[in-house]
Design a protein that fits this description.
This protein is an all-alpha fold. It has helices at about 1-5, 10-20, 25-45, 55-65. Helices cover about 75% and strands about 0% of the residues. The chain starts with a helix and ends in a 7-residue tail after the last helix.
């Protein structure tokens, strides 16, 4: 389905529009900055302790359960 939407003709149109908007000299600078941003993001993920999305959710649920008042105490 995505292959139908994002075909080679659309890719060519997007590249031409990008060159017209940013100019030919700015495209390599943009690509370089995107590459360095990706590298920094991956570096941050590695330094973050390798937590997955499930770990913070489990910690939040455990913390919420510990702070909720006990309904049987009333």
């Amino acid at each position: 389905m995505l292959a139908e939407i994002f075909g080679p003709d659309l890719l060519i149109v997007v590249i031409v529009i990008a060159v017209v908007i940013f100019g030919g000299a700015a495209i390599p600078k943009l690509a370089r900055s995107l590459g360095s941003a990706k590298t920094e993001f991956e570096k941050g993920l590695k330094e973050g302790g390798g937590k997955t999305a499930a770990e913070p959710k489990a910690a939040t649920e455990a913390q919420a359960a510990a702070t909720e008042p006990d309904s049987s105490a009333s």
